[in-house]
Design brief:
Blueprint: E1 8-11, H1 15-26, E2 29-33, E3 37-42, E4 45-53, E5 75-80, H2 83-92, E6 97-103, E7 109-114, E8 120-125
Parallel strand pairs: 1-4, 5-8
Antiparallel strand pairs: 2-3, 3-4, 6-7, 7-8
């Protein structure tokens, strides 16, 4: 298969809270917004997108795209060239940090947040930029 990228979507009743979280704490930009669907993207890479959608939309054809995310079993990874700098910025802004900056025994340097839907956000140092 020759895919060009993987995109992610969250189905949630917390449409606005989710949008605000990703904009405020992770710097994503709004690329498209309607009353039931929002598309966010990385500011310097607009092709990298995160979709947010309200559940039970009549225009959405399949039932598996209708239910809200239950809040368990998934996490998002955001890679950074300088995770310590990102952590310090988050602390200054009083971000809702769940796991403070840590170096794991397997080599990852990271910290975490949790979004309004219970999704863990893992902000990780790129392994090749240490």
């Amino acid at each position: 298969m020759a895919f060009q990228q993987i995109q992610t979507g969250i189905i949630t009743e917390k449409l606005i809270e989710t949008k605000q979280f990703y904009e405020q704490w992770l710097g994503l930009n709004t690329k498209f917004e309607s009353d039931w669907f929002i598309l966010l993207c990385l500011p310097d890479r607009p092709e990298i997108e995160l979709a947010i959608m309200k559940p039970n939309q009549p225009q959405v054809k399949k039932k598996y795209f209708q239910n809200s995310y239950p809040g368990k079993g998934i996490w998002f990874i955001f890679e950074s060239k300088d995770v310590k700098k990102e952590f310090e910025k988050m602390v200054q802004k009083k971000a809702p940090i769940d796991l403070p900056l840590i170096t794991e025994e397997w080599g990852d340097v990271h910290f975490t947040l949790v979004d309004p839907n219970g999704i863990g956000i893992d902000i990780v140092q790129e392994r090749n930029s240490k």
